[in-house]
Write a structure and sequence with these properties.
There is one protein chain. The protein is α+β, with helices and mostly antiparallel strands. The chain has helices at residues 3-29, 90-96, and strands at 33-36, 41-48, 51-65, 75-86, 109-120, 123-132, 135-148, 151-161, 174-188. It starts with a helix and ends with a strand.
């Protein structure tokens, strides 16, 4: 028996199987790929000396794969640029970028990677890891998704304890909890 022919056939069969699997996965996954648009809102609100302070981040980038007909194939893997923090006060923004708060030089990105996305009575729930300032915690983000033509919008809101991520220290002036509100616009690809 000629083993070189057998090995060659086996190698070719592996390549055909790999290409078939790649084609199958690209049909499932990339068919629901959403292109993130630049006009997104990542807003936060926190109490400082009893007054609500609002701010926002820009620079949302990454991958959103979302299919309302097959939620199990959906995933979110995105980041925002921590340096873009904006509270409409340059002095405060400069302070928030320092090591005590967001430490944007050492940790330029805030990351979210979903573990699962589920359908709920009021919309959807993304469970995943949020990484900020080198610390990772599991969070849940309830959201709704609406679509019109080729465009879609994710709207969600959740609370976050800044101390879980080492953003500032315990203070009687600054609240521990912030409310995060998301409006993410996408195009279907």
């Amino acid at each position: 028996m000629n083993y070189s022919i057998l090995v060659s056939c086996y190698g070719n069969m592996k390549k055909v199987m790999f290409l078939s699997l790649l084609l199958f996965c690209s049909t499932i996954v990339f068919g629901q790929n959403k292109k993130i648009q630049p006009e997104n809102e990542i807003l936060f609100k926190i109490k400082n000396s009893g007054i609500s302070v609002e701010g926002k981040f820009k620079g949302l980038a990454g991958v959103i794969i979302f299919d309302t007909k097959n939620i199990a194939t959906s995933l979110i893997d995105v980041s925002i640029d921590a340096k873009t923090i904006n509270t409409d006060n340059n002095t405060r923004d400069g302070h928030l970028k320092k090591k005590e708060y967001f430490d944007v030089e050492s940790f330029p990105k805030i990351l979210f990677q979903s573990k699962k996305i589920e359908l709920t009575k009021s919309g959807y729930l993304a469970t995943g890891n949020l990484t900020m300032k080198g610390k990772t915690k599991e969070i849940k983000i309830p959201f709704i998704y609406s679509e019109k033509g080729n465009e879609g919008v994710f709207n969600g809101s959740f609370n976050l304890n800044r101390l879980d991520y080492g953003v500032g220290s315990s203070s009687w002036i600054l609240s521990d909890n912030a409310t995060i509100t998301l409006t993410i616009k996408v195009l279907n690809q």
